[in-house]
Fold Branched-chain amino acid transport system ATP-binding protein.
Amino acid sequence: MNATTTTAMPILRVEHLSMKFGGLVAIGDLSFDVRRGEITALIGPNGAGKTTVFNCITGFYKPTEGMIRFTGRAGDEFLLERMPDFQITAKAKVARTFQNIRLFSGMTVLENLLVAQHNKLMKASGYTLLGLFGIGGYPQAAAEAIEKARYWLEKADLTDRADDPAGDLPYGAQRRLEIARAMCTDPELLCLDEPAAGLNPKESLALNALLNDIKDNTGTSILLIEHDMSVVMEISDHVVVLEYGRKISDGTPEEVRTDPSVIAAYLGVDDEEVEEVLIEVGDEDVIEQLDTGPDTEHGPEASASMFAGPLSDTVVHGNGERVTVEKGAGKAGRARTEKPAAAKPAGTAARPVKASASTGRAKSGKASAAEKAEPPVTGDKSAEAKAKPAAARKEGISNRLSAPRGGKADNLQLVKGIGPVNEKKLNAHGIYHFDQIAAWKKADIAAAEAYLAFDGRIAREDWIGQAKALAKKAASVPATRRGGRK
């Protein structure tokens, strides 16, 4: 196999991978490629099976079925599902990090990077005491190991902390150190399990820079699991989306971002917002398919994940309760296959329909302000119950405005975590400017999170701090350019 052929081949090919734990199918018939020299992201909500895939690739689990084929730069092929985990690292050159940081906290930063090179140092010592006395090739190997450690200290922006205990580093620096330690093993494939978890926006930018540098300057391919969509969409060349162990989408970040099945199943919009998002991305065919609304019989509760249930027919809970779930009940499957129902169930208010001039098809229209303010009178008590908390929440945020100052609202999407849908929600709720968000107190945050159906996200993403910085920056711009206050 020549070098050209090797370069063109995927570095990793997962074929028909399945992993079962008793009667639970964690991964079901999963196939995807990791292309050489690219960053591939594996995304999906908690419970989708992402870490299980990593554990199969790196030898922690032996898959029930399927093949994991790794092709090295020299053309060597390895079937990872047949190899012990230590050989996957040593021979196939596959390195990984974990969700929880696993540094040697009592060792210095430099020592952590030297430990990662122990195989080479032990070989140079002849697996004897030669290294202790500096005999043979050990001094040269030790010097090379220190030079490599210094190189990755610089790349990870940790040179000034080289002699500090690793446990004393800030959280984001520990993440970068863990990646630098993995790179000291000279991997051809680097597997990162949620590297941006817990990072603030500044730390996420530093992580993005490090990963792009690894891809561009080392030739190492990267496979990462990540929940931070700003990281995924900015640095990934290829994205694979899982729903309960099944692949629901596979393509470029832009293709995945606008895939209706991903929008419905993963990105976290409410059921009633799916149509609004699809209108924004212009997919009218799927808008019609979704016009029937969600399958409430198999759909999740308000606090559940965005999926309906596992793949197995029957799930036995710890308390002995047995729950049967229909296969294909996930939202992604419904987004692809659901057809408009002939009639709505009794007691359910029909959604207004308007004709599309360009296609002649009917698609659902927007509810009027009166309809949004007054819930329909039906026999369904749950609808009435939902309406009361909504009215109470609307009174919660204290600094609402009736209109943007100066007739022009700030671009709230500059706050990390506020997308177009949530910006519209905030505007509809009288929040138009950065300084309004910056002035929120605890009660305002609680009311906003209830209104946006978030759970601790505003504090986690530091909306207040971001808004203060943006408001300060906007205040330094002349009023004629800024729009808003005069």
The chain is about 40% helix and 15% strand. The longest strand covers residues 24-34. The two ends are 69 Å apart (CA to CA). The longest helix spans residues 138-155.
